[in-house]
């Protein structure tokens, strides 16, 4: 038995060493998060290679390929979000008017962590020793994240909040506060208050992947911190493009008309 | 990007029933009826590569040769460009195409466009599967019974 454990350790050491070595690093020795990434996916490869399924944004070239999850998708193995009973009821009721009340239906920023976990649109990270910039194609929003700095004391409530980061070993930890109460966290109707506080942990575990672990705290609506685990996959050769949502947004008015016409809006 | 889709729609239908793939913006479940698939063949009259969704319009002739103009909705330009489309090249006004999608719930000449088949047989997705943006059959919170 003991010999097996020793053998297992001996075999694993090179694997760990290889993994650690395969993480690209910046000049200051920190893991380099710079690159264009896709959220909501765990498939390696270029955008074309990783998006071949029949689901959202897939080309259908490989019908057996897994479906990329969207930010509104609750994976089968995810527990229900820990909302207080009155708030859980409000989350459920939001379904009926989601085509109007979803901030993104109105072309408003999709907030955090929803935008980080989106799979249909790429996001880009630009890392420097003193600050990290995150750019999102969806809604064309951005985050400028100073390192080892405090949040300003004159924050105006914001859709994307205010981010401040620091390194804990090889993990970038981002503290986000200063939110307004107008975005959804992850899933239809997942509202929050202006007391929302988010802690994100970005860990590049190899060349292809960043593990994204996010903790949401909101004493006004949640019973305990809501923790989600996701990943960002490197998409070399992909470039961010313009997305001006307000250009031709017909859907909220269509939804409004359907409600007036008495459309039955309910889950199957 | 040409694909063989024989038998694929059976799988697509199964995926539709699962209805778990969701887009943040699009409200498919409200605007379109997944139980009303529609296949249309017609001539392109207009293409709008716009955000948050793109549209194209086709004239579809009935048995008597009378044309009705249909509006088809799908992905935004950046997503189209990543799924094999080239603006003003892949599809042009005057082209004849066959579109598979789902009819709008209001019953007008309006549909969600899933797959476009071109005259040369090439096929591309113009929009996501039915159920996308439907909010999911599993709510984000537990439902007390």
Break the fold down into its secondary structure elements and pairings:
The complex is a heterodimer of chains A (268) and B (145).
Chain A: H1 2-21, E1 35-39, H2 47-50, H3 85-93, H4 98-101, E2 123-127, E3 131-136, E4 141-146, E5 162-168, E6 171-177, E7 197-204, E8 209-217, E9 226-234, H5 251-260
Chain B: H1 8-18, H2 28-31, E1 32-48, E2 54-61, E3 67-74, H3 77-82, E4 96-104, E5 110-117, E6 123-125
Parallel strand pairs in B: 3-5
Antiparallel strand pairs in B: 1-2, 1-4, 2-3, 4-5, 5-6
What are the secondary-structure elements of chain A, in order, as H or E? HEHHHEEEEEEEEH
What's the total helix number of chain B? Answer: 3
Could you give the count of β-strands of chain B? 6
Kindly state the number of beta strands of chain A: 9
Question: Which architecture of chain A would the CATH scheme give at its second level?
Answer: Beta Barrel
In the CATH hierarchy, the architecture of chain B is: Beta Barrel
Give the termini separation of chain B.
48 Å
Helix percentage of chain A = 10-25%
Termini gap of chain A: 52 Å
What does the model show?
The complex is a heterodimer of chains A (268) and B (145). In chain A, strand 8 and strand 9 (226-234) form a beta hairpin. Chain A has helices at residues 2-21, 47-50, 85-93, 98-101, 251-260, and strands spanning 35-39, 123-127, 131-136, 141-146, 162-168, 171-177, 197-204, 209-217, 226-234. Chain A has a nine-stranded antiparallel β-sheet, with no helix packed on it. Chain A has a single domain (25-260), classed as Lipocalin, CATH 2.40.128. Chain A has five helices and nine strands, in the order H-E-H-H-H-E-E-E-E-E-E-E-E-H. Helix content of chain A is 18%, strand content 23%. Chain A has 268 residues and is an alpha+beta fold. With 145 residues, chain B is mostly beta strands. Chain B has one domain (22-125): Beta Barrel (OB fold (Dihydrolipoamide Acetyltransferase, E2P)). Chain B is built from three helices and six strands; from the N terminus they run H-H-E-E-E-H-E-E-E. Chain B has helices at residues 8-18, 28-31, 77-82; strands at residues 32-48, 54-61, 67-74, 96-104, 110-117, 123-125. Chain B has a five-stranded mixed beta barrel. Chain B is globular. Chain B starts with 7 loop residues before the first helix and ends in a 20-residue tail after the last strand. Chains A and B meet through helix 3 and helix 5 of A and helix 1, helix 2 and helix 3 of B.
């Amino acid at each position: 038995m003991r010999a097996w454990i020793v053998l297992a350790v001996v075999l694993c050491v090179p694997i760990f060493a290889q993994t650690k070595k395969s993480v690209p690093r910046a000049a200051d020795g920190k893991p380099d998060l710079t690159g264009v990434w896709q959220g909501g996916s765990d498939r390696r490869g270029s955008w074309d290679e990783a998006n071949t399924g029949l689901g959202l944004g897939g080309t259908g070239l490989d019908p057996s390929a897994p479906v990329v999850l969207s930010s509104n998708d609750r994976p089968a193995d995810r527990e229900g979000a820990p909302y207080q009973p009155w708030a859980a009821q409000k989350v459920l009721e939001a379904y009926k008017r989601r085509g109007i009340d979803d901030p993104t239906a109105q072309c408003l920023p999709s907030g955090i962590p929803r935008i980080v976990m989106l799979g249909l649109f790429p996001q880009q990270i630009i890392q420097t020793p003193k600050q990290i910039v995150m750019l999102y194609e969806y809604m064309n929003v951005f985050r400028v994240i100073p390192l080892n700095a405090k949040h300003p004391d004159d924050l105006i409530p914001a859709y994307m909040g205010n981010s401040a980061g620091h390194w804990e070993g090889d993990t970038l930890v981002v503290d986000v506060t200063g939110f307004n109460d107008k975005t959804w966290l992850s899933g239809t109707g997942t509202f929050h208050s202006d007391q929302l506080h988010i802690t994100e942990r970005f860990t590049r575990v190899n060349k292809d992947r960043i593990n994204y672990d996010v903790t949401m705290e909101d004493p006004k609506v949640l019973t305990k911190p809501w923790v989600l685990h996701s990943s960002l996959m490197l998409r070399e050769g992909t470039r961010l493009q313009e997305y001006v949502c307000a250009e031709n947004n017909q859907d909220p008015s269509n939804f409004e008309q359907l409600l007036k016409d008495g459309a039955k809006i309910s889950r199957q | 990007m040409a694909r063989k889709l024989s038998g694929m729609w059976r799988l697509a239908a199964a995926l539709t029933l699962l209805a778990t793939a969701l887009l943040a913006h699009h409200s498919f479940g409200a605007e379109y009826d997944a139980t009303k698939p529609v296949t249309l063949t017609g001539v392109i009259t207009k293409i709008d590569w716009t955000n948050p969704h793109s549209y194209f319009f086709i004239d579809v002739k009935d048995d008597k040769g009378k044309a009705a103009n249909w509006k088809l909705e799908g992905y935004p330009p950046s997503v189209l460009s990543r799924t094999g489309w080239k603006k003003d090249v892949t599809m042009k006004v005057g082209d004849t195409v066959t579109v598979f999608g789902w009819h709008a719930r209001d019953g007008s000449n309006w549909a969600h466009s899933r797959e476009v088949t071109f005259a040369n047989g090439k096929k591309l997705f113009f929009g996501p599967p039915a159920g996308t943006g439907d909010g999911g059959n599993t709510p984000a919170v537990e439902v007390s019974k």
